[in-house]
Amino acid sequence: MKKRVATVLVVGAGPAGARCAETLRAEGFDGRVILVGGEREAPYERPALSKEFLAGACESEGVLLRPPLFWADREIELVLGTRIGFVDASRRTAVSTTGKVFAWDALVLATGARPRRFPGPAVRGVHTLRSLREALALRRALRAGSRLTVVGAGFVGTEVASTAAGLGVEVVLLAAGRGPLERVLGLEVGALLVDRYRAHGVDVRLGARVTRFVADGRRRLRTLVLSDGKRLHSDAALVGLGAIPECAPVSGLASEGGIATDACGRTNIPSVYACGDVASAWRPSLGRRLRIEHWTNATAQGAAAARAILGDEQPHDEAPYFWSDQFGLRLQYVGHADKWAAVEIEGERDSFIAMYRGGDGRVLASLFANRAREVAAFRRELAAARAAA
Amino acid sequence: MAAYRIALERTLCSGFAACAKSAPEVFRLDESGVAETLVGESDDPSILDAAAACPMGAIAVFAASGEQLA
């Protein structure tokens, strides 16, 4: 007979960990649920940090995932400002970096990812953006008329560029490749976006890399030196070069570009689960593992892990979905295409759809730009096609 | 008859809670973190904001005439 789980320890209080804790309760689990977060804030949503929060349209209460009493109401024990430094999987204990010991019957690793930093000594005025604290620091730096250089044209970089431009900041956007969001959206959509960014006054430089940041005597950023030798004066810089999964404090965990799990969040160690940005989860429909950093993926995996802990197997294999709000466009992307044979764009600059087709003509993914009404139908079509395949 | 009719596709909801923040009289999250509607129709124009804010596109709003507004 399966041993009853009495205590679930969830490490990481982002959307994956929070949803996992919440789902345990929603499914009727009556044991202890301990949700440990490395930051001091109660669980909050990160997507707003590059948008509304950065623009000053809301404060930190406005980005909380749930109302303050939500966790206590459900007897979810929130332990904030605490990082787990070591897990002993055979004894089923976890120890925080300050020496606090937690016993568990099931452990969920939802520790997320951290921003990739630019190598070299720290320079004041060079920001990264992942946490609320970082968002606050960047927000203070965005003064109208100042100049911000955004290093990296991924989603964080382009959203920050959009928000900063909206605040009257002079923005330079450096894309290392031939276009923004190149790896995910390709060159054709990238070209449309570059035109749009430029129309909003952003100085977009393609094929531009930073070789170093030059600081003044007080270690404050003055100038960026680019790989072609050009120098760029800047009051602040945002480094948006992607994120790397946090290291797991558990020895013997299988990893595959992230903690390797099955479609229910189980790792190779019994009673240890992983979900969200830190997990590289098996995708039955793709026939391989995939680590993705999307909100919907984090919440769905958190819920799947909670159910698996309770013995209810509901593998997560939904088509990936993400959205981005930038320069007056709501971009919504459904599906997964690392490579594609053709992109078809339909519509015009303020409202278009891009379809990414594989070599066999099948639509692998679609991007909707200000075409929100069509997203739901496409998700259903894609799900039906995947079920039929 | 109210000005707006609301259609929420719960299978699309990811629990982002933007709707409950925009129109708390109309939307809330249930125990499992999935949005639910408290009323089927409303005169509250903030439901248009809720529909626009939903990152999943899970909320549709129709006018009394049947025309889709959001």
What can you see in these coordinates?
The complex is a heterodimer of chains A (389) and B (70). Chain A has 389 residues and is α/β, with parallel strands linked by helices. Chain A folds into three domains: 7-114 and 244-309, FAD/NAD(P)-binding domain (3-Layer(bba) Sandwich), CATH 3.50.50; 117-241, FAD/NAD(P)-binding domain; 328-388, FAD/NAD-linked reductase, C-terminal dimerisation domain (Enolase-like, domain 1), CATH 3.30.390. Chain A contains eight helices and 26 strands. The longest helix of chain A is centred in the middle third of the chain and has 18 residues, at 182-199. The relative contact order of chain A is 0.13. The model of chain A has no long low-confidence stretch (mean pLDDT 95). Chain B is of the alpha+beta class. In chain B, 19% of the residues lie in helices and 26% in strands. Chain B contains two helices and five strands, in the order βαβββαβ. In chain B, the strands form two sheets. Chain B has a three-stranded antiparallel β-sheet, covered by helices on one side. In chain B, strands 2-3 form a two-stranded antiparallel sheet. In chain B, strand 2 (27-29) and strand 3 (35-37) form a beta hairpin. The longest helix of chain B has 8 residues, at 46-53. The radius of gyration of chain B is 11 Å and the shape is globular. The mean pLDDT of chain B is 90. The chains are: A alpha/beta (389), B alpha+beta (70).
Average of the residue pLDDT scores of chain B: 90
The largest sheet of chain A is: 5 strands, parallel
The proportion of residues forming helix of chain B, as a percent range, comes to 10-25%
CATH C-level category of the largest domain in chain A: Alpha Beta
- Fraction of residues in H or I helices of chain A: 10-25%
Q: What's the CATH topology name of chain B?
A: Alpha-Beta Plaits
User: Which geometry of chain B do the CA atoms define?
Assistant: globular
Mean pLDDT across all amino acids of chain A = 95
- Measured between the Cα atoms of the first and last residue of chain B, the distance is 19 Å
Number of DSSP strand runs of chain B: 5
CATH class of chain B: Alpha Beta
- What are the secondary-structure elements of chain B, in order, as H or E? EHEEEHE
- Strand coverage percent of chain B: 25-35%
Distance between the termini of chain A: 37 Å
CATH architecture of the largest domain in chain A: 3-Layer(bba) Sandwich
Largest interface (CB within 8 Å) is between: A-B, 24 and 18 residues
Number of structural domains of chain A: 3
Structural category of chain B is: alpha+beta
Number of helices of chain B: 2
Q: Quick one: how many beta strands of chain A?
A: 26
